[in-house]
TrEMBL record:
<dbReference type="InterPro" id="IPR046977">
    <property type="entry name" value="RsmC/RlmG"/>
</dbReference>
<protein>
    <submittedName>
        <fullName>Ribosomal RNA small subunit methyltransferase C</fullName>
        <ecNumber>2.1.1.172</ecNumber>
    </submittedName>
</protein>
<keyword id="KW-0949">S-adenosyl-L-methionine</keyword>
<dbReference type="InterPro" id="IPR029063">
    <property type="entry name" value="SAM-dependent_MTases_sf"/>
</dbReference>
<keyword id="KW-0489">Methyltransferase</keyword>
<dbReference type="GO" id="GO:0052914">
    <property type="term" value="F:16S rRNA (guanine(1207)-N(2))-methyltransferase activity"/>
</dbReference>
<keyword id="KW-0808">Transferase</keyword>
<dbReference type="InterPro" id="IPR007848">
    <property type="entry name" value="Small_mtfrase_dom"/>
</dbReference>
<feature type="domain" description="Methyltransferase small">
    <location>
        <begin position="195"/>
        <end position="351"/>
    </location>
</feature>
<dbReference type="Pfam" id="PF05175">
    <property type="entry name" value="MTS"/>
</dbReference>
């Protein structure tokens, strides 16, 4: 799920352009000054698509797509960038299938290096022969990204600034000789069986079971015919394990990350679970409002509880009267206070190094 809330009061129009995207704007826009023939440009962003929007404005001949894994961030960027004939956002587990002439990829030094490798390999595959990739980092002393680019391209141009970062530009001259799979599979025991998880870079619970998920599974009990909603499901570990415990329940995992939903669906297939489904949604909404018996969540620890509030409000909306909510966290004070305002019978239970906060959804007033 997204790590920020729609309730945020931040004015996105005032957000500064990340240095990595400004470096790309400065390096790439001059290359497009004389471009008159239509070209297809693929971008990613560290914020609200500032580089993508700038390229679209600078080059009317460019058809620019800013790609996201996260539906909520894509929604924010559409609101920020506004309408444009040659700029669009897309959200999917993979880059669009259409071949591209130029890719513009900002990266953050040291953050999710496996995802960077994965996305650059996918970018190389998407480029037409002769197409160019421009990638940036906020590390002015970078060597890691430079070496990665050199392993993929015959010639790499380095554009450095003393304090801000580096841009690398390269042209595709041949396909990659070998493609690496970044998909991972792992198992963990739950009750009387092993649960198989499929994960990919950029997805919560990649390559290992999260300790919070493990703590939640230790205390959750399910009953025949329960309808369960797992918000921010990631690769689906919690929901898949519960679905495997009892074939008479139904579990829905929701996440704003398109890859997470793909992984959860693959996990359901790997475990042969017909009673689990995954839904891609920007805000946790899905079918069946007011019909769920149990709501589960493992919200992030930052964003000043804005995402936590989104989880709780979704639970109020999706649970049936008398339905139960269970939230796992290491810091529970805020949850106890806020849940007491929204739910009845708030209580807590320890599970390893975590605390589970539980409550009952209030009966709606007529």
């Amino acid at each position: 799920m997204p790590r920020r809330s729609k309730k945020s009061t931040t004015n996105v129009k005032t957000l500064p352009t990340p240095v990595q995207e400004q470096l790309l704007i400065d390096a790439v826009c001059p290359l497009l000054e004389d471009q008159t023939a239509e070209i297809r440009v693929l971008c990613t962003t560290l914020s609200r698509g500032q580089a993508a929007a700038a390229l679209a404005a600078a080059c009317p001949a460019a058809q620019v797509t800013c790609h996201f894994l996260d539906a909520y961030l894509a929604e924010l960027t559409r609101e920020f960038a506004g309408a444009s004939l040659n700029f669009e956002t897309g959200c999917s587990a993979e880059f669009p299938e259409a071949a591209i002439d130029l890719a513009v990829i900002p990266t953050h030094s040291g953050v999710e290096p496996e995802l960077t490798r994965d996305r650059l390999q996918s970018t190389h595959q998407a480029l037409v022969e002769g197409g160019r990739l421009a990638v940036s980092t906020n590390d002015p002393k970078d060597s890691w990204l430079h070496e990665l680019m050199q392993s993929m391209f015959h010639k790499v141009t380095r554009i450095a600034t003393k304090k801000r970062g580096v841009v690398y530009i390269a042209r595709k001259t041949a396909p990659l000789k070998k493609l690496k799979s970044f998909e991972a599979r792992f198992t963990f025991p739950d009750h009387d069986r092993l649960i198989t998880i499929v994960s990919r870079p950029g997805v919560f619970c990649h390559r290992r079971l999260d300790d919070g998920a493990r703590a939640l599974l230790k205390v959750v009990e399910v009953r025949d015919n329960d309808r369960i909603l797992d918000m921010g499901c990631g690769a689906g570990a919690v929901g898949l394990a519960l679905a495997a415990r009892n074939a008479k329940i139904s579990v829905t995992g929701v996440d704003s990350n398109a890859r997470a939903v793909w992984c959860a669906e693959q996990g359901a297939a790997a475990n042969e679970l017909a009673n689990f489904n995954a839904v891609h949604t920007a805000d946790g909404s899905c079918e069946g409002e007011g019909s769920y018996d149990l709501f589960l969540g493992n919200p992030p620890y930052f964003s000043n509880y804005q995402i936590a509030e989104l989880f709780l409000q979704t639970a109020v909306r999706m649970l049936k009267p008398g339905g139960e909510i269970m939230i796992v966290s290491k810091s529970i004070a805020w949850y106890k206070q806020r849940m007491a305002e929204l739910f009845d019978d708030v209580g807590t239970a320890e599970s390893g190094h975590y605390i589970i906060a539980g409550a009952v959804n209030r009966r709606r007033q007529k």
